Amino acid sequence: MNQTRAFLIFAWLMVATLLWMEWGREQNAPTIAPTVAADGAVPVPTAAGVPAVPTAPGTATAVAGPGRATPVTVTTDVLSVVLDGGELGQADLLRYPRTKDDGSAPVRLFDQDPANFFIAQSGWVSGTGPAPSHEGGFAPQGAARRYALAPGQNEVTVPFVWTGPNGVTIRRTYTFRRGDYAVQVRDEVVNRGAAPWQGYVYRQLSRVPRALENSGPMNAAGYSFQGAAWYSAEDKYEKRDYEDFVEDGTLNKQVIGGWIAMLQHHFFAAWIPQSDATTTFSLATPRGSAGTEYLIRTLGPAVTVAPGGAAATQARLWVGPKLISGIQAQQVPGLERAVDFSRFGWLAALGDGLFWLLEKIHALSGNWGWAIVGLVVVIKLVLYPLSAAQYRSMAKMRKFQPRIAQLKERFGDDKQGFQVAMMDLYRKEKINPVGGCLPLLIQMPVFLALYWVLLESVELRQAPWIGWINDLTARDPFFVLPALNMAIMWFTQKLTPAVGMDPMQQKMMQFMPLVFGVMFAFFPAGLVLYWVTNAGLGLLQQWWMTRRYAEPPSKAATVAK
């Protein structure tokens, strides 16, 4: 197998992968009909001695409240949210505009609009008395309805309170910190009644599938995972597409710590309970005002408060981008997997490594485009021993092309005899006919892993390179990079020996630059930049190796008489 056939193998693998990805994207269109009760209630287990209660508030006398509180607006340097005591119904990410246009509105992650419905909710259920739900009960504590992070202020707190008829009060405090997308939510239960009170806090995320803003064969958002994800110490990271909420069975998982999330392209929301809290994860598809909603919930921990006593529980609500540095700062096991660097699980580790390296190079260059170029240089240096062997093999094969042509003429239609004679020549001259394949095939997983890195990395979202490339995660608007790739592939073919290839294969290879040029026209510009840089350096290395090994053939290479 020579270098040309390796190109054919690579092209076949690329086309097969793209077809598989496109098929998978079409299969992800959610068409699930709700299969739960009309009121959306889903029974869940509770601790021993506590009656089972529905997790959907409003379906039992254990849930009570005077109605929804007046909404409160909170603005920090990174977030602008609207919330009442039990629900975050709107959240704008102030540092992430929707488009590159001047004056573009920020990305709205939480939204009450039926077409983009996505909210976070939290409340309580109890088998021993009333409890506040996310639908009502909590009231703002104080007269303020607008909170803003003042210059020099590091955090702002927003208090709510619920007071039950049995002497139990629950004070809920939301804490927003500067530069932080994790909202701290603390509930403090105080029992001034005459009887013990026991309850469960629940936290949930509910949404309808997000409609794609753009379409096309390589629309990045179409291939990014959308659905629910969760993490437990026992089973690690798990996820479920919207269409599989019902088909893959119910979820009823008891977990210590962990987290639950709803993921979409570049952004996500996640509830993160206390690391020592015992909770139960579950999924549901209730019918809401926005149609069928997809809900992931964590119920617990159980809180028992004696008369005159108090207890507290807290959690974090991440509302923001898939920002690696911010996620790692939370120090939550497995939360970095929310940045899903691969729909192929075995590529995730490679994607993590590539992003780590890319981030280090970006710290030096200050530009993500040049960081991609630097990444290619590093990979080329790592693979240099393999690629040097590849180009030495190709140079030798080019040098012996006249001899192989004469062998082909001598054996005529005797293809088996020709193959035996050609392999004998390879053995005598120490030419490895498969030496050109290995480096190219090694590039395949790197290429795919980098594709997912560029697809998922919000750090590269709308990041410019130079001139006309103002968004590395979008396709080249003027197709300059795909055209450069076509030219480099054409020159590479001219330097590549077509040893033992019949005319039909040669004609097929002549179309390969055009095929790759059209295919790369739909790829993210950052990925095409990677491939153009890699191919350009490879062309220079191949040219240099060809000149180095272009001395006249040795006596052993002369035609046998």
From TrEMBL:
Please indicate if the UniProt record lists Transport as a keyword. yes
User: Which CDD domains does the UniProt record give?
Assistant: 5TM_YidC_Alb3, EcYidC-like_peri
Look up the record and give one Gene Ontology term from the biological process aspect.
Answer: protein transport
Domain Membrane insertase YidC N-terminal positions: 72-357
Q: Which residues form the Membrane insertase YidC/Oxa/ALB C-terminal domain?
A: 368-547
Q: Which domain of life is it from?
A: Bacteria
Instruction: Give the way it sits in the membrane.
Output: Multi-pass membrane protein
Keywords, ordered alphabetically: Cell membrane, Chaperone, Membrane, Protein transport, Transmembrane, Transmembrane helix, Transport
Q: Look up keyword Protein transport and say if it applies.
A: yes
Q: What is its main location?
A: membrane
Q: Which PANTHER family match?
A: CYTOCHROME C OXIDASE ASSEMBLY PROTEIN COX18, MITOCHONDRIAL, OXA1
Q: Which NCBIfam families match?
A: PRK01318.1-3, yidC_nterm, yidC_oxa1_cterm
Q: What name goes with this protein?
A: Membrane protein insertase YidC
Q: Which organism is it from?
A: Cognatilysobacter bugurensis
Q: Which gene encodes it?
A: yidC
